[in-house]
Specification:
One of its GO terms (biological process) is carbohydrate metabolic process. InterPro entries: CBM6, Galactose-bd-like_sf, GH, Glyco_hydro_5_CS. Keywords: Glycosidase, Hydrolase. With 539 residues, the protein is of the alpha/beta class. The chain has three domains: 239 residues, Glycosidases (TIM Barrel), CATH 3.20.20.80; 104 residues, Immunoglobulin-like, CATH 2.60.40; 133 residues, Jelly Rolls. It has ten helices and 30 strands. It has a nine-stranded mixed β-sheet with strand order 17-16-19-14-13-12-1-15-18. The chain has an eight-stranded parallel β-sheet with strand order 2-3-4-5-6-7-8-9. α3 runs parallel beside α6, α6 packs across α7 and α8 packs parallel to α9. It is globular and about 70 Å long. The protein starts with a strand and ends with a strand. The relative contact order is 0.13.
Length: 539
């Protein structure tokens, strides 16, 4: 059996939000890489350079301006964090003076606020790797500099979350000093951030230690972003990436971005020649195909074999992605009784030869019908290479619907609303507090669903919802950035109480589409009342 990865299909623990499908400088201007390579990955979020970028990472020319790439990011359902010090041309950043820096901050924030058609900005990252790039001799102590910069941003933008301190590796004592200072000054980041660039082995311990530190300082739990992960020797190794993703998912990280080691416009090595996937792309494609709920995986330890998994109860499909181990190993699945007495198990693999070598498809290994005994199953994965990624798909032997029809709202791209839980909601989750519609659109609330359909036609879209407002409410509906329609939601028995549905129609092209339901959005004048979203279903 070798090493054993246990997958508890009956133990869901979070929505499928594809937390680690993100990239530092993932997009370049002029639509690079192509939308067709990004939509299957369900890109969660990106860290992009500041407006007016001067940064030349790895010798690249300045590029990836967050406001200029925003239309493409929006087309693929991705949010953006803006890295402010990338206004400088050199790295490490060449500090000039406080007058110069604060003037740059003012310019960047005003540029973002004036870009009224941009609504996908998730946060301001005030600095990058200050544990070695902050010029203390010229700028003073970083903790004081953080407070000055934080207040300068907040003087102009009172709502966009602030991200930091983005240190180059997890360092408890450094964070303790920073957090204590920020708490005293009232400038705590909304999203805590550091980098994991050396190995996935310590991620679980680092996040557990951070949570303990946070608690000891009397700080309420922060959202966590690891906006650079994987070393140069790891980022193109599917097996190693499987271990990173598994640990981020289990630890409750909100977003994680592939580190930038190469060129703009390749999502950091996932795409070559703008449209061709590399071997590692297929691992993220498997990740993008996950739906329903993430389910608990238990590796033998924090080194070696690891993986992540989902269960879509509407199609009765278990997806498992694993790697980082050589030899013959085992996936032990439990809680799969709902799939029936026999199941079809498909196994495939992917290998990256180089970031310049395309991989037109994953490599099939086996497709076998197994009898399920005692609600569990052992799947042997033979002759694994530690560098390769592996995909195990388990579904009823009698077949499943030909395409995903139900999309959970909490699995979608959620902008300025909240993922919440309710026992009556499909898969136990929904999106509420979709409350904002403003003339500037920077705080508009909406949910984007990236859907994949087999044929171009008009589909009936059933929406599960709740509306406890006592009167009918509306939301805007747009497909692929097209013209706006309106969905009406009659009043229901109460907020957070689901079972009601409403129907509308949408014209979809074959393949991937982005459906937006909005309280407010660029091009839409705003909705009336409020509605909470449980799911959409296409038929």
């Amino acid at each position: 059996m070798g090493k054993v990865l246990t997958v508890a299909a009956g133990s869901p623990f979070r929505p499928v939000t594809h937390v680690a499908t993100g990239g530092l400088y993932g997009l370049a201007e002029n639509g690079r890489p192509a939308d067709s390579t990004l939509l299957p990955l369900k890109v969660n979020s990106l860290t992009q350079p500041a407006p007016g970028v001067g940064q030349r990472p790895n010798g690249q020319p300045p590029g990836g301006d967050s406001l200029l790439v925003a239309p493409q990011a929006t087309r693929v359902g991705a949010g953006e964090y803006i890295r402010m010090p990338d206004i400088y041309s050199n790295f490490p950043y060449q500090w000039v003076s406080w007058n110069d820096w604060l003037a740059k901050v003012d310019t960047m924030v005003r540029a973002r606020l004036n870009a009224t058609s941009v609504s996908n900005i998730l946060g301001w990252e005030l600095w990058n790797e200050p544990d070695w790039t902050w010029k203390t001799a010229n700028a003073g102590a970083f903790n004081d500099g953080w407070t000055r910069t934080f207040r300068a941003v907040r003087a102009l933008d009172t709502t966009t979350p602030i991200v930091g301190p983005s240190i180059s590796y997890y360092n408890r004592s450094w964070l303790s000093s920073f957090l204590s200072s920020a708490k005293a000054a009232g400038t705590l980041p909304d999203i805590i951030c550091w980098h994991e660039l050396g190995s996935p082995n310590n991620i679980a311990a680092n996040i557990a230690d951070y949570r303990a530190l946070e608690s000891s300082l009397g700080i309420s739990p922060r959202r966590i972003s690891i906006n650079e992960y994987a070393a140069t020797s790891e980022v193109d190794v599917p097996g190693r990436i499987a271990s990173y993703v598994a640990k981020f998912e289990r630890a409750g990280v909100e977003s994680a971005h592939r580190a930038f080691w190469y060129e703009y416009g390749t999502m950091n090595g996932l795409v070559t020649n703008n449209t061709q996937p590399t071997g590692t792309w297929w691992l993220y494609k498997w990740y993008g195909d996950m739906a329903g709920r993430m389910v608990t995986t238990t590796p033998p330890n924090q080194t070696g074999l690891d993986g992540f998994a989902s269960y879509d109860s509407t199609r009765k499909i278990v997806n498992v992605v694993l790697g980082n181990e050589a030899g013959t190993n085992t996936v032990r699945l439990t809680g799969i009784g709902a799939l029936g007495p026999s199941v079809q198990v498909t196994v495939e693999s992917t290998h990256t030869q180089s970031r310049f070598t395309s991989a037109p498809a994953a490599t099939p290994i086996s497709s076998t019908v197994y009898r399920v005994t005692g609600d569990q199953l052992l799947v042997i994965v033979p002759n694994m290479a530690a560098s390769d990624g592996y995909h195990v798909v388990v579904q009823p032997a009698g077949g499943v619907p030909s395409y995903q029809q139900r999309y959970e709202a909490e699995d979608g791209s959620v902008f300025r609303a909240q993922r919440l839980t309710a026992s009556s909601a499909s898969e136990g989750g929904y999106v509420g507090r979709i409350d904002n519609a403003t003339s500037t659109h920077s705080t508009d609330s909406y949910v984007d669903f990236v859907v994949n359909v087999p044929t171009a036609r008009t589909y009936t879209m059933t929406i599960g919802y709740a509306n406890g407002g006592g009167a009918a409410a509306t939301q805007g509906l747009a497909v692929n950035g097209g013209s706006w329609g309106t969905v009406s939601y009659p009043a229901t028995s109460g907020w957070g109480q689901f079972g009601a549905t409403t129907d509308t129609t949408v014209s979809l092209k074959a393949g991937y589409n982005v459906i937006r339901l909005a309280k407010g959005s660029p091009g839409f004048s705003g909705a009336t009342g409020n509605a909470e979203l449980d799911y959409i279903q296409l038929s």
